Amino acid sequence: MKRTCVKKPQKSGKQPSGTKNASKPSNKAQPVTLRRVRRWTFRGLAAVIILPLVLTVIYAVVPPVSTLMLARYAQLLWVDRQWRSIDEISPHLVRSVITSEDSSFCEHGGVDWSALEKQIDTLVNEGEAPRGASTLTMQTAKNLFLWNGRSYIRKGLELPLALMIDGVLTKRRIMEIYLNIAEWGEGIFGAEAAAQAWFGKSAKDLTRVEAARLATALPNPLGRNPAKPSSGHRKLAATNLARIRSAGPIFDCVLKP
After folding, report:
1. Lowest mean pLDDT: which of 37-41, 73-77, 124-128, 187-191?
2. How far is Cα 155 from Cα 224, in angstroms, rounded to an integer?
3. Rg (CA), the chain
4. Hey, which of 49, 108, 136, 168 has its CA 20 to 30 A from 230?
5. DSSP at 189
6. How many angstroms from the chain centroid is the CA of residue 113?
7. Where is the Glycosyl transferase family domain (predicted)?
8. Is the pLDDT of residue 235 over 50?
9. Domain 66-245: which topology?
10. Do the beta carbons of residue 83 and residue 63 sit within 8 Å?
11. Cα angle 103-108-109, degrees, rounded to a multiple of 5
């Protein structure tokens, strides 16, 4: 009888074609939702970076409105804002606001890093919420692009926005914008509207005392009445005037010598 020879299959290091690179998922295998998340993340980052930059360039020549003003417009609430150039606003108010809110305004590049470092140390060592390190430029960034309220996220966003604003706009323009969008009461925005509402006169005609009362009302614009200040408010205004007299050349980047 003839023997039938059966050939044994030869071992090979090659994997079947159907399983080649099976452990490496292709880009096509990624979930559609993941690609969408990435796409919208990039779009969001672009909006956060590019949109404020474009708007800031526009605001160099166009009077802006604040996010709080936009929110009131959206709710059909009353808004009083009458834009005035910085030359049409009393220099007394400029001095009082810088002295009260940011005495290093002409020196820093949008962020007062030394003051911020002190507040961070206070937070770490004493557990108190940082306060007093917000520059006028940071407040302008918040008013133009962000929201009110205490938030570490918002505070963190203020820093790059303030640096950008300081890099694009002059100090004089930053102050001009700030004085025209700052809140000075329910629906009252800007120096002209505030001067008319509280003292019945134009912002260019404010006296030293009136300007000091307006400036020291800024930390609590809904709770302080510049026309009828409390005893505590009067003391703050008096302190503001005393500091102005001994301030030195801290206003030169805004006021003409």
Report:
1. 124-128
2. 24
3. 29
4. 136
5. E
6. 16
7. 78-235
8. yes
9. Penicillin binding protein transpeptidase fold (1.10.3810)
10. yes
11. 140
